[in-house]
Give the backbone structure.
Amino acid sequence: MSFSVLRYYKSDYDNSYDNPITLFSYKYDEGEGLLVLRNVIKEILSNNCKPKYEIIPFGDGVDWNIEQDKNNKNIYTIQMFDNSTGQGYRFNIGKENLLKFYNVLDSFLEYKLIHSQGI
């Protein structure tokens, strides 16, 4: 399943959004690792977590690294790397926003499951 990370700039004047900028894009059917990523985030939210996780796909796909900040235990760095293109993206997220991120991933995966079609 393909997905992209987009950045939108919001106008201060009329609450509209400018055209998005694509920061990361994965355009293949498998290997994105989003289901495993969602499960790792669930584990982090349950406070039964390790300081570092690594999700490696079978074959080409997206490698995910999730690491807790050494100085601030409430900050996580999430890094994704597309093995087929060499493109990567990294962002920091606070533990208080991980639940929102988890809910977005969960909704996205649920939508995919409901609307997917067999080959």
Remarks:
- The chain is about 30% helix and 30% strand.
